[in-house]
Each structure stands twice: as structure tokens, then as C-alpha cells.
Amino acid sequence: MALAEAGARGRLLRWPRVVLFGDSITEHCFQDQGWGAALANRLVRKCDVVNRGFSGYNTRWAKVILPRLISKSAGAESTVAITIFFGANDSALKDLNPKQHVPLEEYAANLKSMVQYLKSVDITEDRIILITPPPLQESAWEKECLAKGDKLNRRNSTTGEYAKACVQVARDCGTAVVDLWTLMQKKQDFSCYLSDGLHLSPEGNNFLTAQLWGCLEKQVSGLPFLLPYWRDVDTASPEGSLLGE
């Protein structure tokens, strides 16, 4: 059978997708041992995992670009879940990092705005997962800042205020939330979860994967295995197996 004929006879496979929307912690999540890669591995042949991470971004900028990433005509229907993972940059200290800093009340309003937008394109709240920023290990991050000629430009206590605001938005909007800031600090020395005091280490990636899977599993558990297992393909007439005839 010619490829053109096969394409005409078979219906297009529309792959479901999980969208990961966030800052650098999301952008880097497909690196070796990253949490995005781990999710993609778990969902292979069932669902695409799409990285929409933007290093350095805050919610002020994220709110502007979200409609360019997902709309009713582009991706909303196939999106089975979306994570919104911002706050590490919003919570930067205003005096020392004014470009990335977003005031706490605006941060919460921006998160709500993004949830409301997603709902307006028919992505219901049960498919939206907010993730708080992780805790900041100040001494390690200060070394990173000093190496660039800067002062420590974040504080863990401040990050915690943004994490609390994120959790409250999730409660108000009816979405799921992974409170990384609180969960990671249940371990007395949480520095093992961070590579530089801010971004996730391999152990931190594993931790987030486990926490996030608890929220995602109910959304993806019913997804079928796309296209038949190779042993189930009819060798005498593969078209019938592969084209769904």
C-alpha cells in the first residue's frame, strides 16, 4: 500500500499532551535525570509531554505569553494536564533584582489570571496543577550571586510567602497544587534537593516527579496505549491492525 493511500484510509492519531509551563526549572526539566524527562518516560506511547519552560521568566511575562502557547484552536482540546510553575523569579528581592521581581499580590493575581484563561479555553481546573517555588538554600545561592559580582538577591522566607500565595490561589480556583517549598523542607537538610541553592538537583527532580505523579496519575491513568503492541500486529494484513480497520 502506498503511503498516500494509507494516510487517506487511516485517521490521524491525535496524541494527548501534558504541558509543562514555567521558568528555568521547567526549561531544564528534560536534561539528564530531569523531572520532565521522567514524566515523558512514564507516558511514552500514551501522551506527549511538552516543555514550555522559559528561563528567567516571572508570572507578569508568563501571563502575556500563555495565549500564544495554548488556545481553543491550538492545543487546548488535546491537553490532559498543564503545570504552572512560577515564583522563583517573582520572589526575587525588589531592591536587588527589580527586573524579575513581581509584588506578592500581583503574583497571586497573575496566577489566578492564567487559571481563568485556561478555563476560558476549556481546560478545566481539574487538569491544572500549580507548583510552588522550591525552598531557597541561601548560602549556596549566595555563592552563585557572588561569582557574578552580585549580592544575595533572594531569601527563603520571602520565597515562602510566594509559595503560600500559590497554595491559596490553588484553593481559591479549585486546582491541584504541589507545595514544593513546604514538602522539601520536611527534610531537615533540604539542600540535597538543589543543585545551586535554587535549581533542582537529580534528587530534587526525582522528588518533584514523585509528588507531581500523584496529581497527574488520575488524569492519565485512563489513556490507552497508542497503536497496537508489535506482537498483536497481523503480519498477513498489517493495515487492518495499524489503521484500525
From TrEMBL:
<dbReference type="InterPro" id="IPR036514">
    <property type="entry name" value="SGNH_hydro_sf"/>
</dbReference>
<dbReference type="Pfam" id="PF00657">
    <property type="entry name" value="Lipase_GDSL"/>
</dbReference>
<comment type="function">
    <text>Probable lipase.</text>
</comment>
<dbReference type="InterPro" id="IPR001087">
    <property type="entry name" value="GDSL"/>
</dbReference>
<protein>
    <recommendedName>
        <fullName>Isoamyl acetate-hydrolyzing esterase 1 homolog</fullName>
    </recommendedName>
</protein>
<dbReference type="InterPro" id="IPR045136">
    <property type="entry name" value="Iah1-like"/>
</dbReference>
<comment type="similarity">
    <text>Belongs to the 'GDSL' lipolytic enzyme family. IAH1 subfamily.</text>
</comment>
<keyword id="KW-0378">Hydrolase</keyword>
<dbReference type="GO" id="GO:0016788">
    <property type="term" value="F:hydrolase activity, acting on ester bonds"/>
</dbReference>
